[in-house]
Design brief:
Layout: E1 11-20, E2 27-29, E3 49-50, E4 56-60, E5 78-83, E6 86-91, H1 94-109, E7 115-123
Parallel strand pairs: 2-3
Antiparallel strand pairs: 1-7, 2-4, 4-6, 5-6, 5-7
């Protein structure tokens, strides 16, 4: 299965495996993020606590703390990784975190049998807000 994401991301790389959404456990959001960005997610994937200072979101056991940029250099950009053990979203700034959360909500809406296909998505807007 390939995801339908709007707007289409700049880079999408499918990986082997799947991530069972009901096995992720507590989701966390960096202190710099706004938990309201995640209101489009099911309750179990909404951040319940903060972790670190950056613009990041994690759910599951693969949660890794990241620097504020998280390896995303473009303003308003993000990198969303879905792996067998969890989900990590790192963004360059608050806008990137919001855009990444919107993309994650689109993926979750397309989950099959309660699981997401593993993928890494990197995106940033062509026109900055």
């Amino acid at each position: 299965m390939e995801y339908t994401v709007y707007p289409p991301p700049r880079q999408i790389e499918y990986r082997p495996g799947e991530c069972a959404l009901d096995a992720l456990g507590e989701a966390r959001c960096g202190a710099s993020g706004d938990k309201r960005f995640f209101s489009g997610l099911p309750e179990s994937l909404r951040p319940a606590a903060t972790c670190g200072e950056g613009y990041e979101y994690t759910a599951g056991r693969t949660a890794i703390s990241a620097a504020i940029s998280g390896g995303v250099d473009s303003p308003q950009g993000y990198r969303l990784t879905v792996a067998p053990g969890g989900i990590t979203l790192r963004a360059a700034d608050a806008a990137g975190l919001r855009y990444g959360a919107d993309t994650l909500a689109q993926l979750v809406a397309q989950a099959q049998n309660g699981a997401l296909r593993c993928v890494e998505i990197t995106d940033w807007p062509s026109i900055q807000n």
